[in-house]
Amino acid sequence: MTTTSTFSAIKEDGTKTMHLGRHVLAEFFECDSNVLNSLEKIEKLMVDAALECGATVVQKCFHAFNPYGISGVVIIAESHFAIHTWPELGYAAVDLFTCGDKCDPKVSYEFLRKAFYSKNASYTELNRGILDETDMKVLEVPFKVGVQEISN
Amino acid sequence: MTTTSTFSAIKEDGTKTMHLGRHVLAEFFECDSNVLNSLEKIEKLMVDAALECGATVVQKCFHAFNPYGISGVVIIAESHFAIHTWPELGYAAVDLFTCGDKCDPKVSYEFLRKAFYSKNASYTELNRGILDETDMKVLEVPFKVGVQEISN
C-alpha cells in the first residue's frame, strides 16, 4: 500500500495524529436471510458497495458454504472489504478497510445496511497504522477506536 | 457460515456469553521490508499461517501494488485472514477472523510475527456476533474486546 495517510485526531496536547487506514467493523442484524444466503447477490452488493464509495476493485473471491452462509472478500486498490453471513441468524459481519482520502467507508456501510434490509446495525471505525506527524513513521501502538454508532 | 459458537466470557451476573467469531486485529511493526514486499512470500506465509492453526483454505487472492505493498486475503472454511503491507514503513496490518473451536488465531499471529521478523507487535481479539445463550439468537450489540496484548 502506498503511504497515503489520513488526518486522524487532535491529541490532548494539541498535536495531530495521522493514520494509514480506516477500518470499519460493521455488524448487520435482522437482515433479509434470502439476501444473506445468495452468493450472487452478496458478491454483487459487496462490489457495488466498493464502487459506491469510489473504490477501485482489484480482485474478488466469494464462497458459499453448505448448508448456508457466504464468505467473501473484495480487494480494492484502497485495501479490502470482507463479509461473513449467517442467514439462519439474519446476521452479517462486515469489514470495510480503506486507505487514503478517496473513499468513505461510511457510504458503503449505509449502502449495505439498506441492501441487506438490516433493521439494526452497528458501525465502529478504527484507525490502523497510527503515524507520528513529525517524521511520518508508524507508531508502535495498537489501532485507535474512532467513531462508534448504533443504527436502529 | 454455520452456527458454531464459542464460549466467550462470564458476564457479571454469572451467566455465560457466546460468540460466532474471533476477530484478531494484529499490528506488526519493525518487520523485514523485503518479506513485506514479496508477493510470493506474503501469499505463502498467509496460507501457511492458516494451515498452522488448523484452518482449511478455500480460496485466496493477493495483489502487489506499484511501487510497493501487498494486499491479500485467504478465505478459510472458518472465515478469513487478510493482510496489507507497507514495506517502506516496515508495517503490516493483519486480520485473523476465525469461527468455531477448531482454529486458534493466536497460533497464526505468533507464526506471522516470527515470519515477518517483527520486533514489536500488538494483538487484539474481538468477539463478533455475540449470542444470547438462552435462545442462541445473535444479540444486537457491537463486538466485544477480549484479549489485548503488546509484544516487544
Mean pLDDT of chain A: 90
- Give the helix proportion of chain A (percent range): 10-25%
**Nearest-angstrom radius of gyration of chain A?**
16 Å
Distance between the termini of chain A: 35 Å
SS elements, strand count of chain A: 8
Give a structural overview.
Two copies of one chain form a homodimer. By secondary structure, the first copy, chain A, is of the alpha+beta class. Chain A has a domain at 25-121: S-adenosylmethionine decarboxylase (4-Layer Sandwich), CATH 3.60.90. Helices cover 19% and strands 47% of the residues of chain A. Chain A is built from three helices and eight strands. Chain A has helices at residues 33-36, 39-52, 105-115, and strands at 6-10, 16-29, 57-64, 70-76, 79-86, 91-99, 120-131, 144-151. In chain A, strands 1, 2, 3, 4, 5, 6, 7 and 8 form an eight-stranded antiparallel β-sheet that branches. In chain A, helix 2 (39-52) packs antiparallel against helix 3 (105-115). Chain A is globular and about 50 Å long. The N and C termini of chain A lie far apart (35 Å).
Which features does this protein show?
homodimer; 152 residues; alpha+beta; S-adenosylmethionine decarboxylase; 8-stranded antiparallel sheet; 47% strand
List the helices and strands and how they pair.
The structure is a homodimer of 152-residue chains.
Chain A: E1 6-10, E2 16-29, H1 33-36, H2 39-52, E3 57-64, E4 70-76, E5 79-86, E6 91-99, H3 105-115, E7 120-131, E8 144-151
Antiparallel strand pairs in A: 1-2, 2-6, 2-7, 3-4, 4-5, 5-6, 7-8
Helix pairs in contact in A: 2-3
